[in-house]
User: Fold this.
Amino acid sequence: MKNVNIIVPQYHSSYCIDDCAYCGFKNSNKNIPRHRLSDDDFKKEIQILLSWGYRAIEFVYSSDRYFGTDVIAKRIEYVKELGLKSKIEIRIGLNTEPLDFDDYKTLKSSGLDFVVLWMETYSRDLFKYWHGTITPKSNYTYRYEAYGRAIEAGINNYGMGVLFGLNYWKDEVVALINHADYLYQKYNYKPYIIGIPRIKQAHSVILNGQLKPMSDSEFSEACNMYKKSFPETMLFFNTRESFELNVKCCSNNDLITIDCGTYPRAFLEPNLVKNVNEQFQTHYYEREDTIKKLKQNNIIPNFDW
Assistant:
């Protein structure tokens, strides 16, 4: 018998000034509708998620200049105040572009519980290849050093990860472990979360021959390598993968998503219908059925962690 911690992503924008070659939200993709989650829709979705039992919510942002730190901080404060009024503890995580020290400090003061940031790839050459040279995301060093800025701002619960498929997977796993070791030696904090996303097809995006495919067995091996290095760190399993593969690879107290639509207003759409709005393709995990199947696999879902 083991536990898994349940988290739900809430997408706030599909507008993006970056142009990552593999992403459905990339600026040059003119075939995807763009949306921002309005304040009203944001509040409606929060109420829906809380009514479904969620107590850990990941705010997901693209590189959209509309959502400055002040706007994000207000949304974090809204949810935290809602939790106080309802006498429930709500944990908020942030998945956005790398920020500066003052931004992280502001978000920490607003009640942010943890931050996740994927390096995508640790290869400088491939990072440049996949992300171009003229967008904010093209700054490899600024991204690499963001974890230190977050820790120095008081956000000790940080998540890191790579996007499997952009480079040979084992090189990336070793590089991430080395990066995490460096942060631990400098700040005395191990990663709170390690993300394990694997590249998936996005609408109107052609995935080219530079990709380095990763098999299911290699995915499982990567999870094992992370767990051996950081046994107390939560691996972040997501709906990019099949339920069966996630169940096979997850360990006690890892993270897993259930309801997930990778676009703004996903929870206001009936049954989270998949369409061209998505950032990338995902599997659909129906909440009640997934909870039942987890228990059948001797896994207890923990919504309040």
About this structure: The mean pLDDT is 93. DSSP finds ten helices and nine strands in the chain. Strands lie at 2-11, 56-60, 91-95, 114-120, 158-162, 193-195, 234-237, 254-257, 299-302. The CA atoms of residues 119 and 144 lie 7 Å apart.
